[in-house]
From TrEMBL:
The lineage of its organism: Bacteria, Bacillati, Actinomycetota, Actinomycetes, Kitasatosporales. PANTHER family: GLYCOSYL HYDROLASE (PTHR10353), LP05116P (PTHR10353:SF36). The keyword Hydrolase applies. It comes from the Bacteria. The active site is at residues 163, 369. It comes from Streptomyces collinus (strain DSM 40733 / Tue 365). This is Beta-glucosidase.
């Protein structure tokens, strides 16, 4: 289980989940500020107002990463901290925070990977129509240029968007994520404009950063498996695959949406918002592709539109995340589960990596998110033992290593997440972190999985599942 010497061992976070300081230094509300402050939207009414206060504690957090032995860190920039209205000049004090963070990382020998958008659209842009509106893509490109100009001299690895599927279909379809809208047609328009934002943003980044910069996107591509080989179940899996995967990797990698996607969604939209030149823009050359993976999906054909709350691994809602595929049924896959109810299946990660090795030959891959939530608690001595997470990480990292042996060009792995944080609509009820956070005191305590992962990072070799570090 030895990994290549240049392999990146990182952890990942996102701005709204960890920063806090939502009203400091000119930052204005994002859609997640609005959503989390709307009664009934998050468990316990939790918000990211303070989160884990990374904005004020970033030096300690970087020191913790260095102590663990990590050599890479993926974080996101808060758009409304940098460009409060989503338009116009940057707020330099906002950019200064990220300049300081990057400097601290580099001083500790940790390679920064900057994600420009992790779901926190400035509220003013949502008020103007949000991602279903074409203009939002152009505003994103302007924002990408501003951040590229500020950090491009010291950041080489860039990610335009994180999981655009969630932004489009959970934000505008099922409404379980911000901004909480439930309009199937709007969710498909949002998907296209997110694709366009990536293409425009990639071009803007390249114009503002040195030639050595690498531009990528992180997709939460699904491993979609049919319940049976019945033609109806196979068709259900194909429709979900188009909506989960093809709607993004089709334009990104091939410059075309799947014709089957157009056919199956014709009752919802006519796709007239795909204008001449859009697909060429979206297919801007990628330097790498980020893959986020947690669990596979098992689907079958239904007998009609399902009524009542629907659970498809992304929360329950009376509205579907899958436009024109509301009849498809999602089934619990067999096996052990995390605290999210997600089945633990490392074979899905290997399958996903090998799929993109075939879909995009020669394109370097990074696992930009992978991890598990468990009900972690300190023991009497204040230590946090999480053997389940160690087993999860070992299984999934072994799947990555197996894919490398099978010819995949995987160059790094970013554990989700560095530390416990605001878990979106779940508030503070789910803990994904390798570092435990006491939400009353904000004290950080590395869990046993953090030490285990750090040993892997330092040596490039996976310790045994039962290894005590």
């Amino acid at each position: 289980m030895t990994f290549p010497p240049a392999f990146l061992w990182g952890a990942a976070t996102s701005a709204y989940q960890i920063e806090g300081a939502v009203r400091e230094d000119g930052r204005t509300p994002s859609i997640w500020d609005t959503f989390s402050h709307t009664p009934g939207r998050t468990i316990g009414g939790d918000t990211g107002d303070i989160a884990v206060d990374h904005y004020h504690r970033y030096r300690d957090d970087v020191a913790l990463m260095a102590d663990l032995g990590l050599n890479a860190y993926r974080f996101s920039v808060s758009w409304s901290r940098v460009q409060p209205t989503g338009r116009g000049p940057a707020v330099q004090v906002g950019l200064d925070f990220y300049r300081r963070l990057v400097d601290e990382l580099l001083e500790r020998g940790i390679k920064p990977a900057v994600t420009l958008y992790h779901w926190d659209l400035p509220q003013e842009l949502e008020d103007a129509g949000g991602w279903p509106e074409r203009d939002t893509a152009y505003r994103f490109a302007e924002y990408a240029r501003l951040v590229g100009e500020a950090l491009g001299d010291r950041v080489d690895n860039w990610i335009t968007l994180n999981e655009p599927w969630c932004s489009a279909f959970l934000g505008y379809g099922s409404g379980v994520h911000a901004p909480g809208r439930t309009d199937p047609a709007a969710s498909l328009r949002a998907a296209h404009h997110l694709n366009l934002a990536h293409g425009l943003g990639a071009t803007a980044l390249r114009s503002a950063t040195p030639a050595r910069s690498q531009v990528a996107i992180s997709l939460n591509s699904s491993v979609v498996r049919p319940l049976s080989q019945d033609p109806a179940d196979l068709d259900a899996a194909r429709r979900i695959d188009d909506l989960a995967n093809g709607v993004f990797h089709g334009p990104l990698l091939r410059g075309a949406y799947p014709e089957t996607l157009f056919a199956s969604t014709a009752s919802v939209t006519d796709w007239s918002y795909v204008l001449d030149g859009d697909l060429r823009t979206i297919k801007a050359p990628l330097d790498a592709l980020g893959l986020n993976y947690y669990t596979p999906s098992l689907v079958s054909a239904g007998t009609g539109k399902a009524g009542g709350p629907r659970a498809d691994g992304h929360g329950a809602s009376e509205h579907s995340s899958w436009p024109a595929a509301e009849d498809v049924l999602f089934h619990q896959t067999p096996g052990e589960r995390t605290e999210m109810g997600w089945t633990i299946d490392p074979t899905g990660l290997h399958e996903l990596i090998m799929r993109y090795t075939r879909e995009a030959p020669g394109l370097p891959l990074y696992i930009t998110e992978n991890g598990a939530a468990y009900d972690d608690k300190p023991d009497a001595d204040g230590r946090v033992h999480d053997p389940e997470r160690i087993a999860y990480l070992h299984g999934h990292l072994a799947a990555v290593r197996r894919a490398i042996a099978d010819g995949a060009d995987v160059r790094g792995y970013y554990l989700w997440s560095l530390m416990d944080n605001f878990e979106w609509a779940y508030g503070y009820s789910k803990r994904f972190g390798a570092v435990y956070v006491d939400y009353r005191t904000l004290e950080r305590t590395p869990k046993s999985s953090a030490r285990w992962y750090g040993e892997a990072a330092r040596t490039g070799v996976l310790p045994g599942v039962g290894t005590t570090v």
